Task: inverse folding
């Protein structure tokens, strides 16, 4: 009887496992959302991405990845107070090295609402084995508030221009991508009011002009003005701004498209290949839905070891719309525009 019972329990366990497949980490083709990358002091490449406390992966060759400890071990108290409903699932970070310190900007939000905030954590090293390794939360950089702002304080991207002036680009949907100057002393304190640097429409919208689609208390649509995920990349004589049009996070219904423009100055204005300003609806198409992916977006770009890379996540059709790491070489034509193959 005991043997029969044990057999039945084993069969039940197998049936439950088959009914609910367990997640398995794919080292060569990892699941990520909103990836940014850096090369650490130990020579390894580090990805920072959306996840509880900010997800981290590392690799020696950008081909085989392994999970690393999250950045935020404890949910910052300021974030819980500022963003109601934020539970530690932290979105869309950016990583930047400046004068001996790593600056990691992260997004605290809840899906479909623009009551959000961007925080900052710092570390002397990315190497978890180093005695100097310790992420220290520095608190809030900037916030947006429902019923007050036409933009969302998420998706940060930091750039420091040739004169040493830091700018934070951020935002999504509604009145588009925003930019503020930050203090040179702490790369945290805003020293200017937000300015819209990219939008889908060619005019500024006021709060009362925007037709929100509601699902309960959540604003889930932005119509044709869906734009988010800025990233600023300096290459040659230009600053390039990548942004994502349309919708992420919907699996097979995702429609992300990556577009970009460029400027001679970090603060812009940014122009697409046709000469249209990105704050007036411009943007040159780069990647998007095709025979392999439902959408490609939330991108970043880097120069590593003499090569240029485009990094993003893509909703893969063979994986039922799963968000997978997407890495491609960045190639430029003679005029400095990006060429895709």
Result:
């Amino acid at each position: 009887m005991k043997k029969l019972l044990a057999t039945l329990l084993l069969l039940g366990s197998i049936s439950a496992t088959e009914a609910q497949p367990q997640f398995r980490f794919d080292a060569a083709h990892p699941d990520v959302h909103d990836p940014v990358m850096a090369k650490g002091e130990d020579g390894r490449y580090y990805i920072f991405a959306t996840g509880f406390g900010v997800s981290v992966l590392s690799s020696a060759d950008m081909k085989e990845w392994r999970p690393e400890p999250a950045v935020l071990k404890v949910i910052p108290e300021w974030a819980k107070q500022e963003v109601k409903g934020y539970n530690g699932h932290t979105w869309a970070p950016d990583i930047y090295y400046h004068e001996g310190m790593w600056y990691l900007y992260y997004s605290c939000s809840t899906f479909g609402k623009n009551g959000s905030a961007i925080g900052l954590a710092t570390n002397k090293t990315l190497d978890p084995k180093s005695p100097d390794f310790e992420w220290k939360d520095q608190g809030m950089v900037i916030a947006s508030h429902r019923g007050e702002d036409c933009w969302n304080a998420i998706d940060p991207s930091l750039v420091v221009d040739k004169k040493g002036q830091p700018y934070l680009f951020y935002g999504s949907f509604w009145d588009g991508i925003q930019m503020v100057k930050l203090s040179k002393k702490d790369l945290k304190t805003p020293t200017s009011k937000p300015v819209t640097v990219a939008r889908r429409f060619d005019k500024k919208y006021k709060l009362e002009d925007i037709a929100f689609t509601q699902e309960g208390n959540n604003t889930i649509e932005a119509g044709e003005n869906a734009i988010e995920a800025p990233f600023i990349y300096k290459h040659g004589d230009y600053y390039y701004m990548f942004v994502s049009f349309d919708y992420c996070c919907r699996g097979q219904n995702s429609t992300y498209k990556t577009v970009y423009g460029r400027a001679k100055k970090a603060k812009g204005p940014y122009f697409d290949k046709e000469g249209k300003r990105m704050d007036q609806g411009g943007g040159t198409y780069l990647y998007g839905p095709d025979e392999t992916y439902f959408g490609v977006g939330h991108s970043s770009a880097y120069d590593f070891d003499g090569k240029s890379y485009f990094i993003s996540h893509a909703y893969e059709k063979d994986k039922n719309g799963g968000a997978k790491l997407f890495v491609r070489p960045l190639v430029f034509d003679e005029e400095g525009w990006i060429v895709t193959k």
Q: What stands out?
A: Helices lie at 2-19, 77-82. DSSP finds two helices and 24 strands in the chain.
